[in-house]
Amino acid sequence: MVIVGNDVSESSAGLLSAISWLLGWIYFLCWAFSSYPQPILNFQRKSVTGLSLDYFAINILGHSCYTVSCLAFLYSKTVREQYRRRWGSGVGNPTVRFNDLAFTAHALFWSSFTITQFYWWGYIRLPSQRLSRGMKYLILGSLASIALVTGLVILFPSNDVGPSEPYAGGWEWLDVIYFIGHIKLLISIIKYYPQAHLNYVNKSTRGWSIHKCLMDFVGSILSLIQLSIDASLTPGGLGSVIGNPLKFWLGWISIGDEREYGTIGSVPSECGKK
Fold first, then answer.
1. Which of 10, 69, 138, 263 is the most exposed place for a label (fewest CB within 10 A)?
2. Distance separating alpha carbons of residues 65 and 180, to the nearest angstrom
């Protein structure tokens, strides 16, 4: 059933819903295929030299957070009720889609797979390729912060009296999910720094597959278009985007990252060399 926004006619809703579905799976394919070039390149080179272990480690945490967020918005009755109460019944359901979950779960798997190439495949790896102290602190701090917010929800729960009542303040499980989402946003902002720094130190992008940047860039644009369409189909219209800040800002952050990093990595004399 399609819930139609204020500015969308019934006749257009079905078409927009179909376009949203198509864009969602095209963006999934773009972002999914962007995961393959790096492990393939590592296999061809039988080496992980030139890669930052920090990048892949923090990516695992980021996609773990995004996976939890998508699962909660898609399947948690409690979180979905709290979402509607927080933003008003006119907003409708969350604009998270199954293709969002499929993307981040797929990326989580391939990030985890790629990091195994540092340890268990016998590939060439330099002694300096290890998890930095700063990254260890960031990961532990993120996990501790999630535990703290979860504790606040348990100790100081919201004062609402039922799912049909307006939000009455206090901590809810929705806040935990939003907090986890903001950790993912933070990770998306900084995750390329370790690899960019390593490229700068080496004066080379050798070992890093730049082919993922184009696919990520296209996928980000399609993700934002899908979000806009989905929001227009809710009673809250485009204002419903505020209820899904994670997908909105991830799209824009990814566009910025891929434009900058794609430019850095496109030096003909270095890119793609073994």
1. 10
2. 6
pLDDT tens-place string over residues 38-86: 999 999 999 999 999 999 999 999 999 999 999 999 999 999 988 888 8
| Cα–Cα dist 162/85, whole Å | 10
Contact 224, 23 (CB under 8 A): no
Please tell me the pTM assigned to this model.
0.82
Could you say which DSSP state residue 167 is in?
A: P
The structure tokens listed for 263 are 């430019």
**Structure token pair of residue 249:** 């800002």
Residue type, 273: K
Q: Nearest 5 degrees, angle CA 12-CA 79-CA 220?
A: 50
In sequence order, the 6+-apart residues with CB closer than 8 A to the CB of 65 are: 180, 181, 183, 184, 187
Contact in structure between 185 and 249 (CB atoms under 8 Å): yes
Mean of pLDDT values over 196-201: 86
List CB contacts of 221: < 8 A, sequence separation 6 or more: 251, 255
Alpha-carbon distance of 155 to 267, in angstroms, equals 54
CB-CB contact of 79 with 220 (8 Å): no
Distance CA 20, CA 229 (A): 6
CA dist 63 → 56, 230, 252 (Å)? 11, 22, 17
Q: DSSP letters along 191-255, please?
A: TTHHHHHHHHHHT--TT--TTHHHHHHHHHHHHHHHHHHHHHTSTTGGGGGGG-HHHHHHHHHHH
